[in-house]
Amino acid sequence: MKDFFSVVKERRSIRKYKDKDVSKEIIEKIIDAARWAPSGLNLQPWEFVVVTDKSKKKKIRQIYADARKGLKLYEQDTVFVENAVNIFVLSDKTKLAAMPSTWLAIENILLAAAALGLGSIVMTAPVALEKHKSELRKLLNIPENFDIVAHVLVGYKDEEPEPKPRRDIKSIVHYERF
């Protein structure tokens, strides 16, 4: 297992995955890390819909591509959606501090995947517009009291992107006042 700070610094958003299944054991190990994220009042407002079925992933890929067009984002080869495990992270709207708590769980998914040598990416395009969110809700049978917060992919990397530049620590840390 890698050192925590190495995992944080080496994690990348991956858009190319090998067409190789991730075992249920590994998926559940990653979700277990999410389960241990801190949450407001320990309400644990998250749920996770894991999609491995090839025909469903094909439909999700179509929804993702359509969402990108609807948002006027750059064109992209979306095959990577079908080559990875698709995890939809949900947040119970009825619980206090649900959204920030759920984002903490998402971060744990990303770090757990990286620690296990897998790639991951968080995608919000498919859940940015109500049309696509509604299609996903129907496809995955998601109850109305849950927000679909993010679409996370996890899989075996087929690329090793270089790190993006980061702002210098001195430019972002302010002691005692801004």
| Unreliable sequence segments | none
Count of spatially separate domains: 1
- The largest beta-sheet arranges its strands as 1-2-4-3
Number of strands: 4
CATH top level assignment: Alpha Beta
Question: What CATH architecture label applies?
Answer: 3-Layer(aba) Sandwich
For this entry, what is the oligomeric state of its chains?
Answer: single chain
CATH topology: NADH Oxidase
Largest sheet: 4 strands, antiparallel
- CATH superfamily, by name, is NADH Oxidase
Helical stretch count? 6
The backbone outline, from C-alpha atoms, is globular
Helix/strand structural class: alpha+beta
Percent range for helical residues?
25-40%
Cα Rg: 17 Å
The CA-CA distance between the termini, in Å, is 38 Å
* Order of SSEs: HHEHHEHEHE
Mean pLDDT: 96
Determine the strand fraction and express it as a percent band. 15-25%
Write up what this structure looks like.
There is one protein chain. Helix content is 39%, strand content 16%. The protein has helices at residues 4-10, 24-35, 54-70, 80-83, 98-115, 130-140; strands spanning 46-51, 85-92, 119-123, 146-155. Helix 3 runs antiparallel to helix 6 (130-140).
Protein topology:
Layout: H1 4-10, H2 24-35, E1 46-51, H3 54-70, H4 80-83, E2 85-92, H5 98-115, E3 119-123, H6 130-140, E4 146-155
Antiparallel strand pairs: 1-2, 2-4, 3-4
Helix pairs in contact: 2-5, 3-6
Question: How would you sum up this structure in a few lines?
Answer:
With 178 residues, this protein is an alpha+beta fold. It has helices at 4-10, 24-35, 54-70, 80-83, 98-115, 130-140, and strands spanning 46-51, 85-92, 119-123, 146-155.
